[in-house]
Amino acid sequence: MNGRIVRLSRGDPNTAKIYEQFGGPAKTAQKWQKDGAKKLHIIDLDAALGFGNNRSIIAEIAESVNLPIQVGGGIRTIKDVEHLLSLGIDQVILGALPFNDPFALNQIQKQFGSDVVIVALDNKNGKIMIEGWKTKTMMGVRGSLTKFLGVGIKSFLITSIPKDGTLSGPDLETLDKASRTPGAEIIAAGGIGQLDDLRELQKIGVEGAVIGKALYEERFTLKEALNQFGGK
C-alpha cells in the first residue's frame, strides 16, 4: 500500500501496519529469496481498494528476484492481466473478475493459459466477498469451487476474512472441506500465526499457505517453516 509493505486486519485499511525492518519491498523480496522462499505472494491493496496502484513497485520486485510471483488486487480487465504478465509476474489472483465477467475469465484462459490464473475465494459468514471485500456475492466456497473447476480453473486462494491479520489460526473447517474437492488445489490464507497452524494445514492436504504477518512479527522464521514443511 502506497509503495510500502503493510499488513491489514480483516481487510480494513485503517488497521494498516507498515513493515520496513528488512528495507523496502524489493530489498525485502530479496531477503525472502535468500531465506529459501519458493514463491512470492503480492497483493496490491491500493488497486484492490480503488486508491491507485503499485505496479511500478511490483515491477521493481520482479526485477530484483528470481522467483515465481503471484499478484492480486484490482485485476479487473484482460489488459491488467497482460500488463502484469509483461512485468514478469507468473500468476494473477482474480477476485471480482471471475464473478463479474465470466467471458473475460474465459478469454484470459484462452490467451494466457489456465495455469496463470488463481481464483480468490475470500469469504465471510459463508459468502464470497469481492471488490476489496466490500461487496458480498450470493456464492459460497463450495459452489464457487464447483463453478470454476467446471470451466478449467484448478488453483484457488481461500482467505477467511474474519481470520485475516489476526494470527489466531486458519479457518480449518472451510479449508478442510475445500481441500476434499476433487481437482482443486487450495492455497490457504488468513490467520496463520504459528508453525502448528502449518502442521494442521498440511494434515488436511492444502497445496500451500500464504504467510505474511507471522513472518514480519517474527512468530517464526521462513527457514523454520521450510525445514519442517518444505515448499514448492
The CATH class, by name, is: Alpha Beta
Q: How much is the average pLDDT?
A: 96
CATH-defined fold name: TIM Barrel
Structural class: alpha/beta
Gap between N and C termini: 27 Å
Low-confidence stretches: none
Kindly estimate the percentage of residues that lie in beta strands according to DSSP.
15-25%
Number of β-strand runs:
11
Continuous helix count: 11
Please tell me about this protein's structure.
This protein is an alpha/beta fold and 232 residues long. It has one domain (6-229): Aldolase class I (TIM Barrel, Alpha-Beta Barrel), CATH 3.20.20. 38% of the residues lie in helices and 22% in strands. The longest helix has 11 residues, at 102-112. The chain starts with 5 loop residues before the first strand and ends with a helix. The model has no long low-confidence stretch (mean pLDDT 96).
Task: Give a brief rundown of this model.
The chain is α/β, with parallel strands linked by helices and 232 residues long. It contains eleven helices and eleven strands. It has one domain: TIM Barrel, CATH 3.20.20.
What are the salient characteristics of this protein?
232 residues, alpha/beta, 9-stranded mixed β-sheet, 11 strands
